[in-house]
Amino acid sequence: MNAKDAAASLYQALLTEAQQWACDDTEDQEVLNAIARAHTRHDKLALLQNSSLVPADLLSAITDALLTLDPATYSPDPAPTTLGPAMPDPELHRIRDASITVVDASSEDNTPSDVYEIQVHGISVVICRRAQWGPATNVPYVRIEDQNEGQGLLLVEVNNGGEHEHPRASPGETAA
Fold first, then answer.
1. Max CA pair span of the chain
2. pTM for the whole thing?
């Protein structure tokens, strides 16, 4: 059995456990219905994580195993955003609905520091240091990417300099 199949079996066991713990009350049944309607396994797992259908220690252990066995299915975006060549051994950490991916610095591609990607609420923030940037070396670098779809607005503030608006275009439009 490969890791993806093992994760699928483990997820099914978790869902069965949740169904057994569920009461006949409306709230538990609504959670189970929402899980059944969710589009992705990640969404289904997130609904389970936010419910009280499974004891927290069991849910935490199974979630950790699912993310280890099959991060492509069970995490919102398992691939860290990298700058330049891929760096070795990213570590994915889940905190509530957020994830933090840490990629170790690599002397092979002159990466001066670790890369940290934080993903929460559909926003990806990459933080690292750039080795060469004009006359300065070892300059902090932050990239923010709004991964939500449709029209919207991203407000960004740097060093208490006031909010800057970054509109998100709807499909087919170009951002201003």
1. 67
2. 0.44
